Amino acid sequence: MPSPAWPAARSTAITSGRSWMYSPPRDPATEQSMHAAFTAAAGALDVTPTGPTVWGWHGRTLSRRADHLRHGACWLRLVSAPAGKQGGKIWEGTAAASVLDGTVSKPALYAVHDQVVDDTAYRAELTQYIDAPTCSPDPVVRSPLELPPTWWKQLRADLDRIATVDTDRVAVRQEWIDRVVPQYTGCAAPRITEWTTAHGDLHLANITTSGVILDWEGWGLAPAGYDAALLLAYSLREPSLADQVRETFGDLITGESGRAVMLVVVADLLQSASRGDHPDLEPALRRLLEGRP
């Protein structure tokens, strides 16, 4: 389920994939197979890898900067899944998001290459390389961050455009809301009546200082205002940043529908915290849940 600055910000230069880095697979054979599949994909797509290796969550993805004769600097990302179980929302998300190329600030998709080796399926995605750093090294912002008004204006315009995209992809389901909200907040689950298209994982480790939004695996329909609410929740440890989110997206996260989507997001992140993700965010989420600053 759903759970990238200026000099004041800490950031990383690796931004065309997930901006925070994980470890390789624990099994050396799996790591070796991922490298072999990556090399094969690079050959098939006519690119030369040039950047450092970047591993994704649990070693499920492997990414590197690569050079292409026509496109120039690119980002090559390889994702793996058991053969026969590839497909679905996450597997197809980056490719499906190409319908947004040229309309919102995101890396353009150049090519996709699929292969199956033994019992593992691999998909390689070649996208535009974004050289601007992400705004934060982690989804939870833990240090002061100042972004110019033009950055916020661009983000608001992008989220407004994303919300209007027609799609049958689903990022958040009512059935999930019905189960998780009572379990993690003790509140009755809201019945969502307005659904719009969302990025689905919007935080400042997925947005660059140039305003480019990264990581489109999970985009789809969600409660209206979901992206803004998620951005606010991840910003709670920095009150001035949270205030800026409220100023930019206040109409989406206030009122009855705004309270409902905030409740959904709080439940989402409390569930994640229960699994060990960003436990330091939980006190701020509880205060928000209780209506305290």
UniProtKB/TrEMBL annotation:
The record's listing under Gene3D superfamilies reads: 3.90.1200.10
Name by which UniProt lists this protein: Aminoglycoside phosphotransferase domain-containing protein
Name the domain of life.
Bacteria
Q: Which InterPro entries match?
A: Aminoglycoside_PTrfase (IPR002575), Kinase-like_dom_sf (IPR011009)
Organism, as annotated: Wenjunlia vitaminophila (Streptomyces vitaminophilus)
Give every Aminoglycoside phosphotransferase domain span.
Answer: 147-248
Q: Name one Pfam family in it.
A: APH
